[in-house]
Queue: 4 jobs
Job 1
Amino acid sequence: MAAGLFSGVPAQAQAPLPVTVTLLPERYFVERIGGAHVRVAVMVPPGADAHTYEPRPRQMADLSRSRLYFAVGDPFETVWLAKFKAANRNLPVVNTDAGIEKLPMTDDDDEHGQADRVLGRAETPAGLRDPHIWLSPPLVKIQAAHIRDGLVGADPGRRADYEANHARFVKELDALDAELRGIFKDLKPGQREFMIFHPAWGYFAQAYGLVQTPIEVHGKDPRPAQLAQLIDHARKRGIRAIFVAPQRSTRAAETIAKAIGGAVVIADDLAPDWAENLRRVAVKMRDAAR
């Protein structure tokens, strides 16, 4: 009788599936597909820099109860994922970046290559790949399929809900993609370059025909001579806005903005309201280019 009682519990009465993600935008994706069936923990909290953040003991304790870990290919995971597996040896890891061809940091078409040409400096060390795939709606569609499959594998009783939610999310992604293309459609070729401190928006730029020029030099602030070259480049290209993430130093960006009579503008690559954030940043980039 007890077995019958437990097997007959309807899906809506079951406890939410505890899962963990690395970054805030991933929580948005998992919640769109998992809905009320998931409880999502985020390892890198709001306002933290994934490049330097160390998970708190409470987070490591919570991880021991997680049923899935959704990885995105961020360097944070290179440092911490083995430790997470040690804390929860039965934790399945879903690599949501599987099948995505990442931008090589030494490619002339990538964001570091653009800055290397501006500054006449050596290329970024070989082997580095841009992890910021979550800023491109077309690439998020690939991630979404992995998330759906991971949830179904861990919680097959709710397959129908996960598949229906995934289908709705894909339609939302297609609509957002079309909306973003519309925002940039009237920009001329000479208006499509933007300057940013940390080169997080390379995939976004690739998707919407933009050119990203970073201020950061291989993870460090530019030296005075490099800063002068960036200022000269911005003046020649008519760049009037310098984009920065709120988690990072704005000192170099403020120096350039002041020199060109421009402004420092926030572009958060880790905002939790993912879709609205892409819309906000797109409008800022378009308006700065006009």
Note: DSSP finds eleven helices and eight strands in the chain.
Job 2
Amino acid sequence: MSLTQTQLATVLEALRRAQGELAAYLASCDHDAELTIAKLVGILERREVVRAARLLNTLARAKAGKRGPRNAPGQGKARELTSPVPATEGLSDRTRARAIPA
């Protein structure tokens, strides 16, 4: 297995474990968000996972720079982040509660 394949396997395994924790959280009657977040951080912030993700990101940027456009992901102008939750500014508390999905 090459270095890149090893790094990809490390990241994919971390994502699989994180998805499992999220599924367990959603299936549970007792939603403990703090514990779930701590578990996710524990999975995704492991030294080898962070290293592997950084290496893969560096390789992806290098490939995009060689044959891709200047505004390839991670290069050029920064894109604005948007939230999937509708803006609730200026809404009353009753309206705000309906605007935010459960």
Note: The chain has a mean pLDDT of 78.
Job 3
Amino acid sequence: MSETNNSKRVQKLIEELGSRDERKVIGALKRVPHEGSAEIIIPMLHLLAKDPSSEIQLLLQNSLYNLKDPNALEPLIAALRDKQLKGIRSHVLTCIWQSGLDASAELDLLINIAVEDDFMCAVEVLTIVDNTEHYSDDLLSGNIKKLDKAINEQADKAALLGNLRQVLLDKLLDE
């Protein structure tokens, strides 16, 4: 019974996050830390992508940057792959490292984003990688090679990608 009630509460929160009434949205965001679940992350990110008011942005960031639930990683990784959310990738990456989530299994995706996206995304990826442990040697080696190629092709981010490559190399040599 409580699982059904929780599901209904989450569904109501998702509906209110999509409301055109800013007061409803704000009310829902204030309840998210107490009533929310990982299901609410994607709707919150879509709301952030719509460039809401500064009050809503602040509430979104307070919730999204404090996701301590390991189940939050899956929707955040899905958001990184979602073309509709590409414009807020740096925010999604910030959510991952601010929340201390372990994205080590997603190193390939993270390095691809660092190489293909803008400078801020590359900075966020560097922060995540630098603060994460337990990468497999194969993942580290393959991504070092990927970065070697990217450094030669991207003069604008060469120094940053070089720093990222060094972090991966240090992790490979330490283990």
Note: The chain has a mean pLDDT of 93.
Job 4
Amino acid sequence: MNITANYFGNPIILGRHTTVFSNEILFFEGDINYTWIHYAINSSKKVLAKTLSEIEGKIQSDNFVRVSRKHLVNRKFIVEIGRDFVMLSDNTILPVSRRRRNVF
């Protein structure tokens, strides 16, 4: 089955029962063996029992960038880039690690 991208972005299949679309996600936040998905729509959150590295491996899009050990950010929602932070469209400020500064 071939699922094409639509208005909601590319589908990301994270498990048997979890499919999300790339344009709906602000960022992923890793927490040991769990990952929080922060949605752009109504600022809701959802937790998955997967590591951030597993999710990063499943994403086949260049829209997401790893800014720190804990955060994988959707580039579409980045409003401002500082030396050691990124600000998202909902005014969330996330730190950028020293080793990942050259990504921007």
Note: The first helix runs from residue 52 to 58.
